[in-house]
Design a protein that fits this description.
The protein is of the alpha+beta class. Helix content is 30%, strand content 19%. The protein is built from 8 helices and 9 strands. Strands 1, 2, 3, 4, 5, 6, 7, 8 and 9 form a 9-stranded antiparallel β-sheet that branches.
Length: 366
């Protein structure tokens, strides 16, 4: 059956909560607890979430030609090739041993994107931030803060307890999986399967403006070299940075290709904007490929590149063009909290962050 027409974007699809600023202020306090504790212990400020990177990669994003009008929007309106930076991570605010198994994250910075900028968005780049799950762990920021408060209290503390808890929760997650029950909360607290991030499919989980329409995004492996890693368990025995080491070995030997896909909102009731825990059904709202992400073989933990991305760059859903404006409560609160975290890092490390410029061999539009 042919999908229905996509719903057009209008500002009234969003319904901000009355206490949203209060929640933002409270979240910033919790992030400060994490940032201050980790920077004191490490003598270096790291990200308040997704602090531990497993790989830093550089490649290109090629937008497909002859896309239908509903998909030819924003960054994807015209064919072209863009330089990209890609960061693989896990979600904790402290740098933990990999035996503590957490959800994977993928941050993508597309360099040299033309168009009207989002408010306070520096440079000419577009960021996409994704998780290896189609939904967020909480429907809104207030519910998310409940988990964050607990994590803030134990950040960079009780490592042994976290290891034991993670092992227990991984067992719980396996039982739930057999019952066909998925629990983002269990995974976020250490119950995620310890799988290779290169073989994973990643999702924006939250909604974004897509030019005239609204959408969620996904990045999924399409090259055989990456598909072979899908579901591969990482051997973490006695290896604190096992994931980073495996990714480094794998990317030295192979090239990777992912499909960048778009899922258009086609029914505002079935595909809500404000509740990030609702999965948009792919039968009624299918994903379509709009671009191909190509990462050549390389050293994924090269010192200069790591320093550039980890200390000199920030990733935010609010870095980009107006045609891809973040939508919904979770995204709205990300604006101030992400900026606050980045500003803290820049100040503590005495290293301002920079938006990179495209190399001359890359083009922005054809």
């Amino acid at each position: 059956m042919k999908p229905s027409s996509p719903v057009r974007y209008t500002p009234d699809v969003e319904t901000p909560l009355d206490d949203e600023q209060k929640v933002i202020d409270s979240l910033i306090n919790d992030f400060d607890t994490i940032l201050e504790r980790t920077s004191e212990d490490y003598d270096h400020a790291v990200r308040s979430v997704h602090a531990k990177a497993h790989g830093i990669l550089k490649g290109s994003l090629r937008v497909e030609s002859a896309l239908p009008d509903e998909l030819a929007q924003g960054l994807f309106a015209k064919p072209g090739e863009y330089e990209v930076y890609l960061r693989l991570s896990t979600n904790a605010g402290d740098i933990l041993p990999d035996v503590i198994s957490l959800p994977r994250g993928l941050a993508l910075k597309v360099v040299g994107v033309e168009g009207e900028r989002l408010p306070d968005s520096e440079g000419h780049n577009q960021d996409f931030i994704m998780l290896n799950a189609p939904v967020f762990q909480a429907p809104n920021a207030e519910k998310f803060q409940t988990n964050l408060k607990m994590l803030a209290k134990t950040t960079d503390r009780l490592e042994g307890t976290k290891v034991a808890t993670s092992k227990t929760l991984q067992g719980v997650d396996k039982v739930l999986e057999k019952m066909h029950v998925d629990s983002p909360a269990v995974k976020s607290l250490g119950g995620a399967p310890n799988i290779d991030p290169l073989g994973e499919t990643y999702y924006s989980a939250t909604a974004f403006r897509y030019g005239d329409y609204m959408a969620k995004f996904s990045i999924r492996p399409i090259s055989d070299s990456l598909k072979a890693l899908s579901g591969r368990m990482v051997d973490i025995d006695g290896r604190r940075d096992a994931i980073r080491e495996d990714v480094r070995d794998e990317m030295k030997e192979r090239q990777g290709e992912w499909a960048f896909c778009v899922q258009l909102c086609r029914d505002i009731e079935q595909q809500p904007i404000e509740d990030a825990t609702v999965e948009w059904d792919e039968q009624s709202a299918p994903f379509y490929r709009v671009a191909t992400l190509h990462i050549p073989s390389q050293d994924s933990w090269q010192e200069a590149m790591v320093r550039q991305v980890e200390d000199e760059m920030r990733f935010s859903v609010w870095t980009g063009i107006a045609d891809h404006q973040p939508l919904g409560n979770i995204n709205r609160v990300r604006k101030e909290t992400y900026r606050h975290s980045a500003d803290f890092r820049a100040s503590f490390n005495a290293c301002p962050y920079h938006e990179p410029s495209a190399s001359s061999r890359y083009i922005t539009r054809k």
